[in-house]
Design a protein that fits this description.
Structural class: alpha/beta
Radius of gyration: 19 Å
Shape: globular
Order of helices and strands: EHEHHHHEEHEEHHEEHHEEHH
Number of helices: 12
Distance between the termini: 34 Å
Largest sheet: 8 strands, mixed
Strand content: 5-15%
Number of strands: 10
């Protein structure tokens, strides 16, 4: 059986899947990343995926969100409610002419956390989507889990993390160490479940009936759109055009994964956890709800663990042996 972990994008809402994984990890003898054969993640999910792949515990990564999330998005507990509200309004207005947030804090924190490690240092196969804005094409960071993958394993893990998390309007696009301008992988694969399933069946040549995919989302927003043309535009602005596109994209990704794995017609192979919330209640950069997101993730894990234990967590995955290693490239 081949076990895959897929984590959606969602900014600070990534606290929820981080807490989910940390709560499950408490019941395991080893870091949770070691129980998967492939980990895929986009944007905030990409940061989690890279951290887990490099051997960090889910507890460490959850702590990163809780303790340094406000720093990443320029929030300060010392500002007070009125000043914080005014700052958020200013940043929202600024996003019309430039990036809403300065990416310097995110870069500094990622470099401190990942400590100069490279994709090739990962102990688990990784798949991290980004978007090449100049060539208008998909750009996926991968470990050397196939003989054709001769380049990405040499790249800095922090470069991949910054690229996949460079959400348009929130951060400037990321210039990599080799001068490639990349944007958030959420442009095309905010939910990377389908991409991971394709990778497993095609490039890795794993039988579809051997796959078990744990797919974690960053909250599903609940909204209804009016059938009245005039009210439809207002409803879209309230629900958010971005949410509408992400919903369609996520549905397509899950649908593709189900189709090519045979789920559920020939067996249950995809296990999706993404709690629902009212539209607009949780925002990508609203750090005031970190504690609530943590609680939701932990509670969801408590309910899910009895089922997931027998499928994903009976024993660690086989040791990953890449085709190429960092020491060979030196």
């Amino acid at each position: 059986m081949r076990r895959i972990l897929s984590i959606d994008g969602g900014g600070i809402k990534g606290t929820c899947p981080a807490a989910f994984l940390a709560a499950i990890e408490e019941k395991l003898p080893k870091p949770i990343g070691s129980y998967f054969d492939l980990i895929a993640g986009t944007s905030t999910g990409g940061i989690l995926a890279i951290g887990l792949g490099l051997g960090l515990s889910a507890k460490e990564l959850h702590k990163l969100y809780v303790e340094r999330g406000p720093e990443i998005f320029g929030e300060s507990e010392n500002l007070g409610k009125v000043a914080s509200w005014m700052l958020r309004r200013f940043r929202s207005a600024r996003s019309f002419v430039g990036a809403k947030h300065d990416e310097a804090a995110l870069k500094r924190i990622l470099e401190q956390t990942l400590q100069g490690k490279r994709i090739g240092d990962a102990k688990t196969r990784l798949l991290i989507p980004a978007w090449d804005a100049d060539l208008r094409s998909c750009y996926i960071y991968k470990t050397a889990h196939h003989e054709r993958l001769t380049t990405d394993y040499k790249r800095l893990a922090s470069d991949a993390a910054m690229a996949t998390a460079a959400a348009p309007t929130y951060f400037r696009r990321h210039k990599t160490s080799d001068s490639i301008g990349l944007l958030d992988g959420g442009v095309w694969a905010n939910n990377p479940t389908g991409t991971a399933a394709v990778e497993a069946i095609t490039l890795l040549d794993w039988p579809k009936d051997s796959l078990r995919i744990l797919s974690l989302g960053c909250m599903e927003e609940v909204y209804m759109l009016s059938e009245n043309p005039g009210k439809l535009s207002l409803g879209l602005r309230k629900a958010g055009f971005l949410n509408l596109f992400m919903d369609g994209q996520s549905s397509n990704s899950l649908g593709a994964a189900k189709l090519i794995t045979g789920h559920p017609h020939t067996g249950n192979r995809i296990f999706r956890y993404s709690p629902s919330a009212p539209a607009g209640f949780f925002k990508l950069d609203d750090t005031t709800k970190i504690e609530r997101l943590s609680g939701i993730g932990a509670s969801m894990a408590r309910s899910a663990f009895p089922e997931l234990q027998q499928i994903f967590f009976r024993s660690p995955a086989e040791i990953f042996e890449p085709y190429y290693k960092i020491e060979d490239a030196a």
